[in-house]
Amino acid sequence: MTKLIFEKSEKGMTGVNLTDKNIDINATDINPKFLRKSDLILPEISELEAMRHFKELSDKNFCVESGFYPLGSCTMKYNPKVNEHLASLEKFTELHPLQADEDAQGSLELMFKLQEALKEITGMSAITLQGSAGAHGELCGMMIVKKYFESKNDIKRKKVLIPDSAHGTNPASAGMCGFEIIKVNSNEKGQVDLDHLKELFDANKDEIAAIMMTNPNTLGLFEENILEISKIAHSQGSLLYYDGANLNAIMGITNPKVMGFDIVHLNLHKTFSTPHGGGGPGAGPVGVVEKLKEFLPVPVIDFDGKKYYRKYNLKNTIGKIKEFQGNFGVLVKAYSYILLKGNSLKEASMDAVLNANYIKEKLKDYYDLPYDYTCMHEFVISGDRQKTDGVHTLEIAKRLMDFKFHPPTVYFPLIVSEAMMIEPTETENKKRLDDFIDIMIKIAKEVKENPKTILDAPHNTPVSRVDETNAARHLDLRYQNKE
Q1: Domains contained in the chain, CATH given
Q2: pLDDT by residue (tens digit) across 317-355?
Q3: Cβ–Cβ under 8 Å, residues 271 and 75
């Protein structure tokens, strides 16, 4: 059991001296309201013991370098460490974002060429790199939708259609822009119900601003009727928005422009090399078709044939959505990844699709498969069969942890009961996939033969079974001095 760093504290032990006799700090210069009224409680511990403490904590952390991480809809793939090295180069890290354009040509060139690469990958006509994450990109895209119709004085369009299989951030982002959200039902194949879509357009004449979609959708299924959906939306004067969270399935095979989308956001921290998760920075660039170029946030990076520069004079810009040019380190890693992969981006997508279908076919005899079709980079199975034996999806997820596998996404999407969304990504080899399959089959058999083993799981983790409900309602995040 790992002790808290305060529990390792020894009276009088020091690791670093924070005082300097040559520095005269006058507390009278500080506004009294900012001064502490009681002594600061810090652990008294040596530098070496502090280092050991945090190393011990890091060893307990599960990451993609330590095991299989099949979180659906997240693309938790291994990312080459060379990209981390390139992003940490001094010429990038020491450059101030307020540096004049003429003194930042290398970085501006990188951003411009990244824009060009993302334009080619998505088929869009223009790109902004400002978005700081996927949901931020969504917000930017919906702000563009709103201003586009305002510029046309088409003020009745205050509704957005969103499929019931969408990411939860979609309705939140549209709602933050003041749009009313209308749900579109899925059909028996797990795709958008065209009849329901047409009914919604008929019932809301000239009021639909956009449809927000992910393709492949959150079930991991490609929308076979995407061209028909695009035709319906555009015939009604609406825009089509693409949530790029699942782009890892289609790179180099097709693109959002071919499908008829007008606005795209991308997750560079999923698809293009920055490790996803752990609270680090992300990036959510947004691409648009020609008629929406002037609505992008400023500045965009441009090139006049001689120098690269930040362009601000966009007629209908929505303004600025992020300080400076966004999370620059993430942009460096994305550009490095694209240069590294080149045309083999298509192979990455094809391998991701192959891996997902391989696992799906191996598991569908042991778990329920609500939509038994060829999937893309991820698929959703259900623990309904196991639930009838008293074991829920949450217990299956906890049992997986005993075998050094990160659980898949559970209970999402909401339209599948006892859902488990599995995304192996392209970076896992067949041996690791087989190991995961074997353990999932083993757990399915345990449900029948020895369910208590699962109900008491996990058994081998640093922290055993916890009471999530109690932990959520009674947070205990602060160390209390017991003396």
Answers
A1: 1-60 (no CATH), 82-343 (3.40.640.10), 345-471 (3.90.1150.10)
A2: 999 999 888 999 999 999 999 999 998 999 999 999 999
A3: yes
